[in-house]
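*** Protein under study ***
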Amino acid sequence: MSTQPNVKDFFDPKTNTFSYVVSDPATKQCAIIDSVLDYDSASAVTSTTHADQIIAYVKEQGLQVEWILETHVHAHHLTAAQYLKQQLGGKTAMSERISLVQDTFS
């Protein structure tokens, strides 16, 4: 069995964004990194098409989500972290300095 982590990328062409699932082949534990919640600005409607692809992959591979991570503030897309957590479990995490960015933009 490989000791290297598996890294699966998911590309969202609308936002030119990559999301990743990084998993341990031995334990089947994984982290989801920088998820995308689909957003149509013309109708102001969100959807979960991109996140549902990640959910399908996690289930197909028999993975257990440990972490849903946001590596930075996403000005060009919304995060699907809460949706993924509802569907797959796991803990969410982001930089503690996010409040500085929020204060700046508010």
